[in-house]
């Protein structure tokens, strides 16, 4: 057939079909074509009216069709002889009716109505697209097959010719074939998308939630998402085809439509790396949709997380952050999601903008929101995948960049930041310590040094980062310095902080760890200094921890002349009444661990005598009265 013949065939009017004039076979959804040919028009009309009445008991939106498609006047209307205007109006009415009928397509009343429209208005010829649109969500049912068999789609130029192979065998359309055709024929993809928007428009003003359209939204998502997954490459053409519908879905107040759109955005994000401008636009639209429809908070944030996770870092700009901050359920939802899923991609996007917002401009409503959200995130959502260090670094870097602020503005900033820094430190002290320790040696500029020390003053443990004159480095690093003399000086500085009542500048964890670490030192002078600090803070430490440290020291250290004063001091501390007070089990256990040290060897005699007089052995049942004997043995060896 030539190209011209194809065009002429496509332009042929349905009424020129010879089957319309023959009464041997009549197209019918419910009856055999030969049986249908024997039935009169009034029978089909009564059947259609009965179906409409039954539908009205379910859905009032069909009421207007009583006076049009199902009126008495329709009995005598022959569309083939009507004007173009009349036929256009008739097509519009049929289109609206079939669109509203789609959610109820599987019900028998719907079949009765379709039967009348097929018989009277020949919708299988004039309105084939709309009839298939009504049936397509039910493509795997026998009713769909019966509708399909009414159509004239044998010609290769017909848009539905790909379904012709199903007509003769009478088999339903498989899901795989549907999805394959969706991504291979973009006009069909567009047809599915317009089904959704047309259905929403058809029910606008009749139902607020459009709950009856759930089947349409489900079909939309379950077709488009797998089609995007199946296609080898999501082209720009596919994206441009889907984008208008994605934007409509994100703006829609309909929950199910929005949920379906979230699924499509996720699949697009996973399948293709999009332009930054498109990613930013999608992020803004998603965040707007979350403010308007908090019911889908988890789904929307999940969609945003998938988008950010699979696109280039930094593709989404700051516009979405303001919207997210005005979302009341943001942090509680993130908290719930973080217990099951990885929300770090969303936090990695959100946190830098929140931190920057604290320092940008003067205080205002937006900044208050950002501060509130940031505090809530730190309080409730765990920062994983090095995000704690990222926040610590952002806070410090932003603070050090405030070189132009006046003293008054700086004071206001400190007041705003103080509770935030303290909260962060209480949750992620290790991350803050690591970042601050790394900056101690990096800061050389005088103004930067001043800002750094000002930032340290916001911390509960600012003392550990104080610069010591002996080493020109921080207390934290001085305690681990390779030179024993520097370590001694650092421990003595710790002692000065404790005795001067300034230990609030050090958190208890750091103080304890510093003392315990220096008790393991290989230099007697360092350990001796650490023992003095230990005695000064004995009241705030757990007795079991102190006893364990001292016992480890006694067993580890060589009882030589240079270590003996240190060990003797350790034994003296073991006899402190604050240890073992009203804890018989601790006394007994410690006594058993000290017994091996009582073995009489020449270098240990002085240590043995001290041990025998210690409170732990003095109360132990096996060593009662050993102290006088130990004194005599030491005297006899001198």
How would you describe this structure in keywords?
nucleus, ribosome biogenesis, mainly alpha, Leucine-rich Repeat Variant, UTP10, rRNA processing, two-stranded antiparallel ribbon, 34 helices
Strand content bin: under 5%
Helix % is: 55-70%
Instruction: Catalogue the unreliable spans.
Output: 629-638
Classify the secondary structure makeup into a structural class: mainly alpha
Task: Please compute the radius of gyration using only Cα atoms.
Answer: 41 Å
Number of helices: 34
Strand order of the largest sheet: 1-2
Distance between the termini: 127 Å
The whole-number mean of residue pLDDT values reads 84
Family: Belongs to the HEATR1/UTP10 family.
Subcellular location: Nucleus, Nucleolus
Domain U3 small nucleolar RNA-associated protein 10 N-terminal: 238-354
Function: Involved in nucleolar processing of pre-18S ribosomal RNA.
């Amino acid at each position: 057939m030539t190209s011209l013949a194809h065009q002429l065939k496509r332009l042929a009017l349905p009424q020129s079909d010879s089957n319309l004039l023959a009464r041997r076979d009549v197209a019918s959804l419910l009856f055999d074509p030969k049986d249908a040919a024997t039935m009169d028009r009034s029978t089909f009309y009564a059947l259609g009216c009965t179906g409409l009445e039954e539908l009205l008991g379910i859905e009032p939106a069909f009421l207007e069709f009583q006076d049009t498609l199902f009126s008495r006047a329709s009995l005598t209307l022959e569309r083939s002889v009507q004007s173009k205007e009349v036929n256009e109006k008739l097509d519009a009415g049929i289109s609206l009716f079939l669109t509203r009928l789609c959610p109820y397509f599987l019900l028998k009343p719907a079949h009765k109505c379709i039967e009348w429209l097929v018989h009277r208005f020949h919708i299988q010829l004039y309105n084939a697209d709309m009839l298939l649109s009504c049936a397509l969500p039910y493509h795997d049912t026998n009713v769909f097959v019966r509708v399909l068999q009414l159509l004239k789609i044998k010609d290769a130029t017909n848009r539905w010719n790909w379904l012709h192979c199903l007509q003769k065998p009478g088999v339903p359309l498989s899901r795989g074939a549907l999805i394959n055709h969706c991504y291979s024929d973009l006009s069909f993809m567009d047809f599915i998308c317009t089904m959704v928007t047309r259905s929403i428009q058809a029910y606008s003003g009749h139902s607020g939630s459009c709950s009856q359209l759930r089947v349409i939204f489900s079909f939309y998502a379950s077709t488009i998402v797998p089609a995007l997954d199946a296609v080898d490459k999501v082209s720009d053409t596919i994206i441009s085809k889907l984008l208008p519908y994605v934007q409509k879905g994100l703006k829609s107040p309909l929950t199910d439509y929005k949920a379906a759109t979230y699924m499509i955005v996720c699949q697009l994000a996973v399948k293709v790396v999009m332009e930054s401008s498109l990613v930013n636009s999608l992020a803004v639209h998603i965040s707007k949709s979350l403010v308007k429809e908090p019911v889908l908070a988890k789904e929307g944030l999940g969609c945003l997380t998938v988008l950010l996770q699979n696109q280039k870092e930094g593709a989404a700009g700051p516009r979405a952050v303001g919207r997210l901050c005005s979302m009341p359920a943001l942090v509680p939802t993130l908290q719930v999601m973080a217990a099951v899923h990885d929300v770090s991609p969303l936090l990695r996007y959100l946190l830098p903008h929140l931190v920057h917002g604290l320092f940008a401009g003067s205080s205002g409503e937006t900044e208050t929101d950002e501060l509130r959200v940031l505090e809530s995130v730190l309080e409730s959502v765990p920062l994983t995948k090095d995000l704690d260090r990222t926040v610590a670094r952002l806070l410090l870097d932003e603070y050090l960049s405030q070189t132009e602020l006046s003293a008054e503005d700086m004071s206001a900033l400190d007041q705003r930041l103080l509770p935030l820094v303290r909260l962060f430190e209480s949750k992620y002290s290790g991350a803050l310590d690591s970042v601050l320790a790394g900056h101690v040696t990096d800061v050389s500029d005088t103004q930067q040094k001043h800002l750094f020390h000002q930032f340290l003053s916001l911390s509960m443990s600012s003392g550990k980062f104080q610069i010591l004159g002996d080493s020109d480095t921080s207390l934290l690093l001085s305690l681990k310095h390779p030179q024993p003399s520097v370590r001694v000086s650092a421990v003595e500085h710790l002692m000065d902080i404790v005795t001067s009542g300034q230990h609030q500048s050090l958190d208890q964890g750091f103080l304890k760890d510093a003392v315990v670490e220096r008790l393991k030192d290989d230099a007697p002078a360092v350990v001796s200094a650490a023992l003095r600090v230990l005695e000064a803070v004995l009241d705030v430490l757990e007795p079991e921890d102190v006893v364990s440290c001292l016992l480890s020291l006694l067993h580890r250290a060589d009882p030589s002349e240079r270590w003996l004063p240190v060990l003797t001091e350790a034994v003296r501390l073991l006899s402190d009444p604050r240890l073992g007070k009203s804890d018989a089990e601790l006394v007994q256990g410690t006594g058993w661990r000290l017994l091996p040290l009582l073995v009489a060897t020449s270098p240990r005699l002085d240590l043995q005598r001290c041990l025998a007089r210690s409170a732990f052995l003095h109360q132990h049942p096996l060593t009662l009265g050993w102290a006088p004997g130990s004194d005599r043995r030491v005297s006899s060896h001198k």
